[in-house]
Structures are given as structure tokens and as C-alpha cells.
Predict the 3D structure of the following.
Amino acid sequence: MKKLKNLAINLGLTLSTLIFTIAIGEIGLRVGGIEHPPPPRMDAEVDENTPYTFQDSYRGWGGNPNGKSFWTGEGIPSEIKMNSGGFRDYERSKTKPENGLRIALLGDSFTEALQVKLEDTHAAIIEESLQQCPVLKDRKVEVMNFGVQGYGTAQQLMTLRHHVWDYSPDLVILIFFAANDLRNNSRTLEHDHLRPYFIYEDGQLVADMSFRDLKFWQRDRYAFSLVDFLPFWLVENSRILQLIRKVDIDGKRRQYEKDYSEINMAFYQDPKANYDWEETWKVTEGLIKLMRDEVYEKGADFMVITASDSHQVLPDIQRRDGLRKSLNVPNLFYPDIRLKNFGKEENIPVYTLAGPIWDEAKKTGKCFHGFDNAIPCGGHWNMAGHKFVGEIMANYLCERYTTLLSK
């Protein structure tokens, strides 16, 4: 009996010490302002006030209509606000204005452009500049942004099918970012599997929607911690668990960088005998053709614009050439050249941005990618990049419409 009493006392002291230590730790972290809120889980209840939902049955994730938050990541801190359609764009009516011209942009984070304020995105600049095009001055021009961060071509196709047609666009532009759009289209090369894939069966592209049956821990091994098995409300309210989770995830991100160091650069190279890359190129080109066919069936026009990767347009020629040599490639434009040739074969207009951006970078010494709070000259387009891209795309489209309307 005495032994049981001593055991109970020891357990009580141990438990009390543990509770006291946890309480002190929680208080200390709160006083120090240390907080690392976990991201929403794909199986969590949808909070209509957040900008994204992870329960989109066609795309995996997408924007919450009218959702909002404040962006503090790479780039310029600003409010993120989705319109009623669930996209980071100005509010748009589904009723097309009389004599209006609507251009729909499909893309990923380069198109959504959370890194700059909405009015400084290339989409907004194209809209404003194109309104000044002489042949369009009597038409209401709308350049509608349907970009969503992390999307591959399959998700962009699903966005076209299930969202874009509600707004009756005259022209659909796919803004293709080869650095990750190719990888996003391959189950083998991609690590984030909360997305649809397309595969060839009997020569036809067929949608693989198995992501609908994923458990939240199966989505991405680099973004999942054992802490995530605990109730979400507990992690959301415990600074200690948040800190443990952050340490774990930071370690996995370092592992990701190690594991994906080659994959993240392989898009610069001719895939040759690499089956996985040959297959993702085949699927990607098939998706673009499928998108073209569906756009033409709706009586709209279609084109592809290839976005620049930061390494392609570095003003530091020595650094840029060092990368080219390390990859053992003749130049850094393989994906742009391939898509340009593909466009000629398939009657798809393709405009490449890397060339003119690099020419401007060499001439001015400017970096069109990168922010002070992120990778210098790396990552996404900065304000100068969006301004330049918006202006040259507007000029290109103005010339295109001038030619079309003069026939």
C-alpha cells in the first residue's frame, strides 16, 4: 500500500512538473511573440474568411470567394482579397459588357502574383494599357486573372472548364512557367499530390482524380509533421506544438531542397532518354492541345505565353553562364524554344517573355525577379518585372488586334 502511495505521489509530482513546464513554456513563447500557426488542412472545415480552400473537387485547392488575409511572404506586404469568383482579381460580372473584350489569364503564382499589390500585377497593367490601344479604345477591355499559386497545366485546364467559361472570354491566354508547370503535371516528379493528373490511355488523355481520396498526411511528405496527427484546434492554440512542428517542417524543407536540387533544374535540359521528363512533356503538350481545342470549340481565341525563370534573365552574365555550364546545356531557353516550335506545329500562337526580359536586363542591369526580403534577383517577378511584362504583353496584344481587325 505504501509503495502504491509513493508511486501515486511520484506520478503526481511528475505530472505537475510537466504541466508547470508546459505552462511556463507556453507563457514564455506568448510573451516573446513567437507563433507559427499551422496552415489549414485539406480535411479541415472551410473558413470562408481565408483566401483558399483545400477541398476543391476538381483542382485540389482554390480561392475562397471573397476570402482575404494579409500577405507577409516574398515581396511586398499587402492585403490578399479574392473576388466573388474566388480569384485574386477585381470584381467581375458574369455578364459580359456590350462591345466588351475579355481576356482570361490562366497560370500559377506568376499570374496570381501575391508578391505585389493587385494594381501592380501584369494583368492589371495589361488591362490599363490595352484600353489605350487605338483599335480597342471604343471597347471595354477586361483582363481577368484566373491564376492560382502552385497550379500545373491540369489544374489550369480544370479552371478553364469549371470557372472561366462563366465569364465568356474572347481570348484565353495560358501563361506557362516551365520551371514547375512541367513537374506539376507528373505524379512521379511532383511531391504535392493534392491535384488532378492526366495520363494517356489508348492514346487519349484521361483525368486521374484520385486526389479526392487522399488523407491529409498523404498530400506532401515534405509538408507533413507527426504533430499534424494531433487535433487541429490543439496545434492551433499551442505555441509549443507549433514550434515543434516548425522545427520538423524546416528539416523536411532542407531535405526537399536536397532531394529536388536536380529535378528543379532539369527543365532546362532536353529530356532525351529520361522517361519521366519525356512523359511529362508529352502530357503537358497534350494538355495544351486539349485546352486549345476546348477554347476553339467555344469560339474564342487561344495562345500561350512562356514566363521567364529568374536564372534565364540574370543581368549578371557571368553568374548566368556559370549555371548554363554546370547544366551542360547550350543555352537556358530549351523549354521556350520547344514550346515555340510546338506552337508552330499545332497552330498555337506562342510568345516567349524570357528573350525580351533578358535583353532589357543586359541593357539596364535591372533584376526583374526578386525582392529585398527574399532571394536577390530570384523567385517571382518584382514590380519592375510586372511593369515590363505588362507593357510588352499589352503592346503585343495591341499589334495582334490591330492586324486582326484591319483584315
